Amino acid sequence: MMSAFQEHKEELEHFEQMFGRERGRLAVSLDRITNALVLVGQHGVYCTSGRNPMVPAMDLRMINQELVHAKELVQSVMEELRRAKQTPKS
């Protein structure tokens, strides 16, 4: 199994060049989290709750919520890094 750095080498190089090392890696992380959310959503169509077939199974809802929270946290770090870069130091 390849590491994230090997598997996403070209994407990492692109975003690190565009945003810098830290923000570039966070941008690629956001893309990976977004892809995971899509996959969980697709799986939720087929794996529904036994009690309510109109909603995904509980484990998929929990995974989805954790990924949403992780994405929010990564986005907040990216925003803080952007602000820190724009704020002139005294």
Structure characterization notes:
It is a single chain. The protein is mostly helical and 90 residues long. The protein has a domain of 35 residues. 78% of the residues lie in helices and 0% in strands. It has four helices and no strands. Helix 2 crosses helix 3 and helix 3 runs antiparallel to helix 4. The model has no long low-confidence stretch (mean pLDDT 92).
Question: What is the topology?
Answer:
Blueprint: H1 4-7, H2 9-19, H3 21-46, H4 58-86
Condensed summary:
Helix content is 78%, strand content 0%. The protein is an all-alpha fold and 90 residues long. The chain has a domain at 36-70.
- Please provide the ordered H/E string of secondary-structure elements: HHHH
Cα Rg: 17 Å
- In round numbers, the mean pLDDT is 92
**Which secondary-structure class do the elements indicate?**
mainly alpha
Q: How many E-type strands?
A: 0
Largest sheet: none
Shape: elongated
Strand proportion, as a percent range, falls in under 5%
The parts where pLDDT drops under 50 for at least 5 residues are: none
How many separate helices? 4
Kindly report how far apart the N and C termini lie.
Answer: 47 Å
Binned, the helix content reads over 70%
Features:
about 90 residues, mainly alpha, 4 helices, elongated
